Amino acid sequence: MSELIPIQLPLWQMPLLVLLPLALPAVMIAGLRRMVNRRRIPEEERDWSIPPLTDGDGKSLLHRWDVRCKILTILVYSFIIASLRHPEPAAVAVAASLLVLMIARVPLVKVLLRLLALAGFLGMLLVVMPFTVAMHPGDTLLVFGGVNWLGLNLRGLTLAATIAAKAVAIALLMEPLLSTAPLPVTLHGLSRLGVPEMTAQMVLLSYRYLHVFRHEARRMSSGMQLRGFEKRTNLATLHALANFLGMLFVRSFERTERVFDAMRARGYQGQFPAPAELRMHFTDVLISIIWISAGIALIVYDRIVLQG
Amino acid sequence: MHDIHKSIPWPPSDDALVSVKGLSYSYPNHRKALTGIDLDISSGDRIALVGQNGSGKTTLIKLLCGLLSPTSGEILYKGKPLPDHHLDRSRPEIGLLFQDPDDQLFGHTVVEDVAFGLRNQGLSRENARHEALHALEQVGLEKLAYKEPHNLSYGQKKRAALAGVLAMQPDVLLLDEPTANLDPRQEEIFLDLLKGFHGTLICISHDLFFLYELCERAVVLDQGHIHHNYTMRDLVSQRRSLREHGLDFSFRLVVEPPAHLPDSPLPEDMQVQTPSIPDRAVNEKLVVMRNYQYCYPDGTFALQGVHLSIHAGERISIVGENGAGKTTLLSCLIGLRRGEGDYVFDGKPVTKSSRKDLWRHAGMVFQDCADQLFCASVREEIAFGLRRLGYSRAECRPRIHQALSMVRLEGFEDRVPLHLSGGERKRLALACVLAMEPRLLILDEPTAGLDPHGEEMFLEILGNLRTTILLVSHDMFLVKELTQRTLVIHDGRIVTDLPTHVFMKDESLSSLNGLAFSYRQRSSSAIRILQHEHEHSHLHEHLHTHRHRHGELEHEHPHEHAHEHTHRFVHRHTGDQQQHDHIPSRYHDHDHPEHGSESHDHSHPGIMPNGREPRD
Amino acid sequence: MHISDGVLPLSVTIGGYAAGAVLTAWSARRTRSQDLPKVAVVTAAFFVASLVHIPFGPTSAHLLLPGLAGALLGPVAFLAIGLGLLLQSLLFQFGGLTALGANSLMMGLPAMVCGWFFQTFKGRTSFRQAIVGGLSGAFGTILAAVILAVLLVTGGEDFFGVAKIALAAHVPVIIIEGIVSAFTIGFLFRVKPALLEPSFVKPVKSVHV
Fold first, then answer.
1. Based on the structure, what is the number of domains in chain C?
2. Residue A145: its pLDDT value, please?
3. How many alpha carbons lie under 13 Å from residue B225 in its C-beta half-sphere?
4. How many CB atoms neighbour CB B88 within 10 A?
5. Per the CB < 8 Å rule, is A266 touching B168?
6. Is the pLDDT of residue C100 over 90?
7. Cα end-to-end span (Å), chain C
8. SS (H, E, C) B16-44
9. Mutate: best of A183, A212, A238, A247, partner C, most C CBs <10 A
10. Is C47:C62 a contact under the CB 8 Å cutoff?
11. Which among B18, B29, B449, C107 is most buried, taking Cβ atoms within 10 Å?
């Protein structure tokens, strides 16, 4: 502990230096969440008689990129990003992802929703880690008003920020990965990379029935509300919610049988027809090579230049 | 139980497309679903499959398309037994439309879903898509081909599911409740689509008007047996047999009394029940909404400038197309949603916080009662709301009993709601709401999915209630029967507010708002003519068995004789009212009191020469 | 709580993927390939169930449901959970793409243990089934929390504090999960006991294909 660098600060600075920086993002996230919920601009009644994303004349480079290359590249790149250790390359990765986002021209609302989903876990890390990381020699500690046991370790803060940056960098790429091709095509690409075709079909089916069950659940919960159900911390609430879950399961298992019957009635015999044909060009591979090279450059910067 | 096959049965055909022989089916838990089914279906037949809830209709349909295999007996399709290898080939030729389109639309987009069956038939992707788009064009959905199914309206989903079946160009089309939950406009579109289908068609429905329009042959199932197999005309004209199968929908025929009333008074159960307004405080306003609006988060208005006032004790119906804003209005009224504008309930303005307490004063019966039944026993189900109202367990008991007896489910306390029949569940849902003694009772399509018997009972229960009722329905019969005032809602606005009887007369008004039900009126009057019922006397030929005596000899055997007496008879009038055209060989179903003691002069070829018959 | 990208070391994420893939393949083998669509639809139901928030004092917790998934699905649970997490990660960003393998182990292993536990000890009475169901619900959550903590700790001693807090944060969830599972199993026993039989997802004999 001798080589720790404690910086003593008066207690009154604590709100300024700790609570404010924490409160600001929290307020921003709350604001964003409200905005996203409010202003979900009505989608213009587009012409649904044409496929939403026709291949060939896609809007951007990412739209035209072969899905197999896209999936493989982004997956490998994500692993590279996830293994970065320093804040600087992580920040560069975030910048790079923002650039990709601009090239791909994907709807920003969806990207924001993804970031909001991350906020909980990352917020927890940002709050907890500065106070709980192990003390290493050379760490800078902010101690407020002499309360020594509650030292804010700047290394912990950096570590948490690095993790957050990496997570954000990867999360920002998910929307360009998924919304630049129809979901079935992307999943088909996955199956052409060796994942069983059934996985793709199962994801699609789950996705489809997710919506159906959500509506069912919503109607059931209004049914409960209308008979005076209110969520509280007590046994009656848990009992009612357990009934709700039980009913949800009973209904969904029954529906499962009916869906399966409907599939068999239309000739399902254990296999789904392939959704699309994929063509790969040299440029597709070239983009992948460039992209992954960028990732490798980042890891070199991280491991060799910075670690020295 | 009346005798089976009294009308001319449908003639058996030699070149049956589907032929069912001695078919029986038991569920995995060994409960019998169907027994001894024999049925021949020729190419081009249009068959209505009717029967009470739980009579085995859906099971029969599943057997016919090979989703289940018979416990005993066989199904021949084009002369060959259906199961085994033949099934894979014949399955695409037998299309099945499920009741809930969400079960059937499992594709990611509409066109992908429609192409699913085609791809399984071996078409290439391009061809399948082409065919799929063509099928969607047939049902008028080509503009929505690439939309995800969960973004479609209910009627569109239903048509998309039909496109998926039609695309495979089936020879046989099996339909399970094709029109359930559709608004009249969608229903008419659907009817036209089905009329345009030229193959064999088997349709399950409780809606006999719809079936009358679509089918010419009727098969009546009762507890797993085929009770009748004859023409649709025969089915709808015989009230007595309809009644015994719980299918008597005749109570609906009084929607618009014919100009020429039958020459004798209608039987009691066909009288129009005029709901009476309770005397107390008619001008006490229970609900007042002024300039009320509701805006979805995406900026579209679901309700705009709604002015609404409901007096205590009044019975009001709200009609309008799907998507006109009816459901949103109900959610606002009952406090699930909060819009902008004035809303006063029972003299108190509804604020942000008091909205959460509206459930204490208003109750709602959902369209699908599965959405509001979630307990493991009937007792708990009813007690759920009562306990939330603050009643103790002891106080709950008499209330539960009373609520159950109101809906005629006495003694059901320990039953499991999920195991009850459709009609019983619906009544249970009503009991749960009634037990809480709501000032305002909201009914959302209360009789959807009920068989006519269940529907009639539900109507009777509602007729006896004294609370304020707000009904939302596409069913003009219910509107007429239950309510005195009708509001038409269109594009989020209340466009019409009229006494129900005035609204009913104004046909242009009702058709303007997508509520046209012209074919219903057409078939209603056609059926009314078929069902014309009154008393008269005429000579009968009888073939029957009863004890009778010839002097010394008293015995029993079938014999034929003619006599004259009055009875109630169903027949039709052609043109002039005086002229009676009796459908030939109609069975006259009636008793002959005192007949056994009449003298019987007829020969007995079977009797022994000594004039004595062996007694048994 | 699902682990996001960038937390776990590379070796753990890749190891998680490998182990997850092996277990998923094993789980899929236990189902007839014909019936895999059924698993997909059932997964959607569990997904929706896990979105239910339950108030606990001033905060609220959402259910993890490994116990119930195990009890209702048996060995198929791992496949269903893997699928559900893939869906969550792809569509809603709950749980990172690189941490998918680790997350599936965290939820899937407890589900399988609980499934075995429930089927072995469930007995025949309603009361006993509810108790055993509640125990497997609670136990499944404990196990998931422990695996989460262990995974976090692989990041080095810097993560000890986070791991401890994550464990502590699961305590209310464990209690809620146990009680809700007990009630749910009790409800299902009265309403539809067939769901509690082992691996019901397999087709009923009378259904032929």
1. 1
2. 73
3. 6
4. 13
5. yes
6. yes
7. 40
8. EEEEEEEEEEECCCCCEEEEEEEEEEECC
9. A238
10. no
11. C107
User: C187 or A142: whose pLDDT is higher?
Assistant: C187
Q: Tell me how far apart the alpha carbons of residues B61 and C197 are, in angstroms, rounded to a whole number.
A: 28
Which of 208-227 (A) contact B at CB < 8 A?
Answer: 208-209, 211-212, 215-216, 219-220, 222-227
C40 touches chain B (CB under 8 A): no
Residue A83 in this model has a pLDDT that exceeds 60: yes
- Using CA atoms in the order B560, B563, B566, B572, what is the torsion angle rounded to 10 degrees? 60
- HSE (side-chain half, CA atoms, 13 Å) at B499: 2
CATH number for the domain spanning C153: value is 1.10.1760.20
Name the token pair of B52.
């009470």
Cα-Cα-Cα-Cα dihedral sign, residues B251, B253, B257, B258: negative
Contact B376 C190 (CB under 8 A): yes
Candidates B113, B123, B119; CA nearest to B159 is B113
Please tell me the distance in Å from B67's CA to the nearest CA on chain C.
7
Whether residue B151 has pLDDT greater than 80: yes
In a domain, C66, yes or no: yes
Contact call for B145 and A225, based on CB within 8 A: no
Confidence check: pLDDT of A141 > 80: yes
Q: Which residue of A has its CA nearest to B380?
A: A240
Alpha-helix runs per DSSP H in B281-421: 326-334, 378-389, 393-406
Classify residue C43: in a domain, yes or no. yes
- Host H or E run for residue A5: strand A5-9
Reported as a single tens digit per residue, the pLDDT across C38-96 is: 899 999 999 999 888 888 877 777 888 889 999 998 888 999 999 999 988 888 888 88
CA atoms of A30 and B80, how far apart (whole Å)? 67
ipTM for the complex shown: 0.90
C93-101 average pLDDT score: 88
C208 falls within a domain:
no
DSSP B103-144: HH--SSSHHHHHHHHHHHTT--HHHHHHHHHHHHHHTT-GGG
Using a CB–CB cutoff of 8 Å, tell me whether A148 touches chain C: no
Q: Is C190 near chain B, with CB under 8 Å?
A: yes
> A127: which chain C residues are within 8 Å (Cβ-Cβ)?
none
What's B16-248's CATH class? Answer: alpha beta
Q: How far is CA C3 from CA A121, A164, B88, B348, C107, in A?
A: 8, 12, 46, 50, 11
Homologous superfamily of B285-519: P-loop containing nucleotide triphosphate hydrolases (3.40.50.300)
Average pLDDT, chain B: 79
Note the residue count of chain A: 308
Q: Give the Å distances, CA to CA, from B455 to B246, B589, C92.
A: 10, 26, 44
HEC readout, B202-235: EEECCCHHHHHHHCCEEEEEECCEEEEEEEHHHH
Query: Buried (b) or exposed (e) across C171-186, using 16+ Cβ within 10 A?
Result: ebbbbbbbbbbbbbbb
Backbone angles phi, psi at B214, to 5 degrees: -95, -40
> Taking the C-alpha atoms of B405, B411, B415 and B418 in order, what is their torsion angle to the nearest 10 degrees?
-30
A62 CA to chain B: closest CA distance, Å? 21
Query: Residue B531: its pLDDT value, please?
Result: 66
User: What is the pLDDT, as a whole number, of residue A293?
Assistant: 94
Strand pairing category for B440-444 and B285-295 = unpaired
Instruction: Please indicate, yes or no, if residue C183 is contained in any of the structural domains.
Output: yes
Q: Which positions in chain C touch A132 (Cβ < 8 Å)?
A: 160-162, 164-165
- Interface mutation vs chain B, best among C39, C42, C187, C191, most B CBs within 10 Å: C191
Rounded to 5°, the CA angle B43-B82-B103 comes to: 85
> Domain boundaries in chain B?
16-248, 285-519
Residues 225-254 of A with CB under 8 A from C: 231-233, 235, 237-239, 241-250, 252-253
